[in-house]
Amino acid sequence: MIRRLPPLSALRAFEAAARHGSFKRAASDLAVTPTAVSHQIRALEEHVGIALFERRTRQVVLTDAGAQLYPVLRDGFDAFAEVIERLTRRRSRAQVTISATIAFTARWLVPRVTAFRALHPNIDLQLQASDEVVNLDSAGVDIAIRYGTGPYPSFSVTPLFADRFAPVFNPMLKVASVADFLQWPLIDFQWRRRHPDNPTWSRWFAEAGLPEPREPAQLRFSDESHAIQAAVAGQGIALASLALVKDELAAGQLVQPFGPLIAGFRHHVLTRPGESAPEIAATVQWLQAEAAVALYP
């Protein structure tokens, strides 16, 4: 597709003038004369066939058309600057960007960053937490950690670890048996994607061979991390990923006395095919080493 765009110099002049509200300050920003800025903007207005500024004494004000164009150019130039800065910084100091879910980033990656820095002091980690699936190319991501069944075509895939879920709660609740579950809210969180194998309370009760309570008290969250925090605070019983509550179990902030353990999905490390950057390879190896450590107390 051929993009029929005006000259970049005219777009830069417009963006600077709109940002400063002044041709003079825009000229100073771009290291040209105010007359040059005025000519560039006039040429842009002729290209689009509509006025983009109202010229006033010592001030220029965007027209409605200019107000529509400005945020698009501003965000575009900001995106250019961010990517160029990242590429420049990468040449001087290695940086690896990892994308993962909010809960996995907060509860599995962040606690391990200090150990990574000690092992690889010349590599900067940038963690991008999002529950939305990101595009590795357009988002500037080097490694994506995906949780699911796969497959993941068009990527190099390294299995990380499979997850398991079980009821956990603060020991102050004094839950001695599954019958005591009904005394406390069952803490739940919303799975972003429906799947019959999602580790839910219904599935846990079925695998435990127990009837699911008809109307149990429930405390629901949109984010898994918040559900875990609520369990630590003693607000109920959570069906939680044992990998994500490992530290709380080890510290005695949570206990997990009841089975069964039900299988979750597997975490996978995704990279671009043929990726050969040594800092990315080192980070993938580190992730594998961390996953190889005993996941559960």
Helices, strands, pairings?
Layout: H1 8-20, H2 23-30, H3 34-48, E1 53-56, E2 59-62, H4 64-92, E3 94-100, H5 102-109, H6 113-119, E4 123-129, E5 143-148, E6 156-168, E7 186-189, H7 201-207, E8 218-221, H8 224-232, E9 237-241, H9 246-251, E10 262-271, H10 278-292
Parallel strand pairs: 3-4, 3-5, 7-8, 7-9
Antiparallel strand pairs: 1-2, 5-10, 6-9, 6-10
In words, what does this structure look like?
The protein has helices at residues 8-20, 23-30, 34-48, 64-92, 102-109, 113-119, 201-207, 224-232, 246-251, 278-292, and strands at residues 53-56, 59-62, 94-100, 123-129, 143-148, 156-168, 186-189, 218-221, 237-241, 262-271. A hairpin with a 2-residue loop joins strand 1 and strand 2. By secondary structure, it is α/β, with parallel strands linked by helices. The termini are far apart. It folds into three domains: 8-90, Arc Repressor Mutant, subunit A, CATH 1.10.10; 94-161 and 266-292, D-Maltodextrin-Binding Protein, domain 2, CATH 3.40.190; 163-264, Periplasmic binding protein-like II (D-Maltodextrin-Binding Protein, domain 2, 3-Layer(aba) Sandwich). The strands form two sheets. Strands 4-3-5-10-6-9-7-8 form an eight-stranded mixed sheet, with helices on both faces. Strands 1-2 form a two-stranded antiparallel ribbon.
